[in-house]
Amino acid sequence: MTDRICIASKGKQQFTISADDILSCCGFICGNGCEGGYPLQAWKFWVKHGVVTGGNYTSKAGCKPYPFPPCEHHNNATHYKPCPSDIVPTNTCEHSCQTGYSTSYTDDKHFGATAYAVSKKVTDIQKEIMTNGPVEVSYNVYEDFEHYTGGIYVHTAGALLGGHAVKMIGWGTENGTPYWICSNSWNSDWGENGFFRIIRGLDECGIESGVVAGEPKL
């Protein structure tokens, strides 16, 4: 959402959409807060109700910045403490901005114009990224993905851990092997500086079957 607002406004609107506002206020329509949910419903929430601004935990920027400190999701813990074994409880929905923020909660809301699923056809996904910006993709995570350190990921071993959603930003080819480029949320010491590449065109781990996006209302 943040990227697409910036792209659609040709760089005139640069701020971060609040993840906490969606997590805490979308409720059971989106799923179960920090325990997971349905990506397309979050985009539909943006269209119907709007979402306020909010930067990451350390920035304290915007109306509702992210309330939870960073932690390590993997074994290569170099920056932060390991994440707790229990999922942090989702915040209560608050229709107010942080103390000291000059704009009201209502006035800070930004809305989407559309929310939609993208077909699993590779060329359709590529066209969507080229036309409107990054898309959100959901897929299955296996044990070997947690230990990914670089290269083009293909699931080879390990049990299914659950579902995950990330931002897909582009694609490429290395030594004849096509891949997608995605931005993960597991800090910069995981994968390729926080990013990963996954084989393209095979619906690996279902990554081409769960593509969603939307366009902003400017």
From TrEMBL:
SMART domains from the UniProt entry: Pept_C1 (SM00645)
Q: Name one GO molecular function term.
A: cysteine-type peptidase activity
Gene3D superfamilies cross-referenced by the UniProt entry: Cysteine proteinases
The answer to keyword Protease applying to this record is yes
Q: Which Pfam families match?
A: Peptidase_C1
Q: What functional role does this protein have?
A: Expression of the protease correlates with blood-feeding and suggests a role for the protease in blood digestion.
Protein family membership: Belongs to the peptidase C1 family.
Name of this protein: Papain family cysteine protease
